[in-house]
Design a protein that fits this description.
Layout lengths: L1 E17 L2 E15 L2 E8 L8 H9 L12 H11 L4 H19 L3 H4 L11 E4 L4 H10 L5 E5 L5 H11 L4 E4 L7 H11 L4 E5 L7 H10 L4 E3 L9 H4 L5 E4 L1 H4 L2 H13 L3 E4 L6 H8 L7 E2 L12 E2 L2 E3 L2 E3 L9 E2 L6
Parallel strand pairs: 4-5, 5-6, 6-7, 7-8, 8-9, 9-10, 10-11
Antiparallel strand pairs: 1-2, 2-3, 12-15, 13-14
Bound molecules: magnesium ion.
């Protein structure tokens, strides 16, 4: 097996603003693993908060030597080897995990969900994300998202209530709210959540700083809405840290190291009665499609990452009438449709 990798800049259709930050591109590293005439595709998307970047991913990949591995179906052996090369580097590890799963599916002629014995369910809805924006832009985004059933609204600014009231005046769609750690005080957060519960909001993601673990627990106990950990949970081991303080967890391939780790996290979260959201970064269709194969195991899906970008090198999972359509072709089910260029 042979690893190749390509630095790539994901370009967003619009500047994306969340609590504390704003950006119009996301650095990434695209991966191709070749074996026996087949190519497995993978991706590391590297938004600023992950602490990985193209340089750290390159450094990690320099340590990888897949020439000794002759069978991509030895998934566990290969991924254990990758995992033991260095700690951290979860997005870099995810890129390889995706590419090896893609190869394994292609060899067995099975889509990823069948390779892993997941149910492939239809009729799963994803939310469409609207960043912190002006009223005109919110209005425009709501019309772009007209076919979606759920909207995910970024909060964490002084105009949170005004924006929610404005959105309620335009649509009666159920809302996911993501605060990205933007509220600083548990009392005002609870007051806000009580208010949101009357405004068609179904869940609240990461209201307080991930460091405020006990305060988050206090909030979860009193909140009428489920409180979902995102920034507070990255990997499998973090489940122990958050399990008593949140109602559920947002699992993302780039945070946890790929499909194998995500599956383990889902299994553990279910044993603990935690709710599960499958989310994504701004990613190409490569990683988003990989995540879509896990969708039947989750309570909520937030996989619109590839819809927000303008230079997607892949086609794969589609969103039709707000529902995800998982490809039936082998592996991830993605097709490279253009070069990795900005
Ligand atoms: Mg989030």
């Amino acid at each position: 097996m042979k690893l190749r990798y390509f630095p790539f800049t994901i370009v967003l259709k619009d500047t994306f603003t969340i609590s504390h930050s704003s950006r119009s591109t996301t650095p990434a590293m695209m991966v191709e693993i070749e074996h026996d005439g087949l190519t497995g595709y993978g991706e590391a998307s590297l938004p600023p908060y992950l602490k990985e970047n193209q340089q750290s991913v390159t450094e990690f990949f320099k340590k990888v030597d897949l020439s000794e591995f002759n069978d991509p179906l030895d998934l566990d052996i290969i991924l254990d080897y990758i995992n033991n090369l260095a700690s951290g580097n979860e997005a870099a590890k995810a890129a390889i995990d995706l590419a090896v799963h893609d190869l394994a599916g292609k060899i067995k002629n099975l889509p990823l969900n069948q390779l892993l014995n997941f149910k492939k369910s239809s009729g799963i809805y994803t939310s469409f994300t609207i960043g912190i924006s002006s009223k005109e832009k919110i209005k425009m985004k709501i019309s772009v998202a007209s076919s979606y059933k759920y909207l995910k609204i970024k909060l964490g600014s002084e105009v949170d209530k005004k924006n929610i009231e404005f959105i309620n005046s335009l649509t009666d769609k159920p809302l996911f709210v993501d605060v990205n750690q933007g509220w600083s005080d548990k009392y005002s957060a609870l007051e806000m959540i009580n208010w949101l519960a009357e405004k068609n909001v179904v869940l609240v993601e990461q209201p307080l700083s991930k460091e405020m673990i006990k305060e988050n627990g206090w909030l979860t106990e009193r909140s009428p809405l489920p409180i979902i950990a995102d920034e507070a949970i990255q990997t499998f081991d973090d489940i122990e840290l958050v399990k008593d303080f949140y109602s559920g967890i947002n699992i993302k391939l780039m945070k946890c190291g790929g499909v194998r780790q995500a599956k383990l996290m889902i299994e553990k979260a279910k044993r603990l009665n935690l709710k599960i959201m499958i989310g994504c970064m701004t990613e190409t269709s490569c990683a988003v499609t990989a995540a879509s194969h896990l969708a039947s195991l989750a309570d909520w899906i937030d996989l619109d990452g590839a819809e927000l970008i303008s230079n997607d090198p892949f086609s794969g999972m589609k969103i039709i009438e707000g529902m995800i359509q998982i490809p039936d072709s082998p592996g991830l089910g993605v097709t490279k449709i253009r070069k990795y260029q900005t």
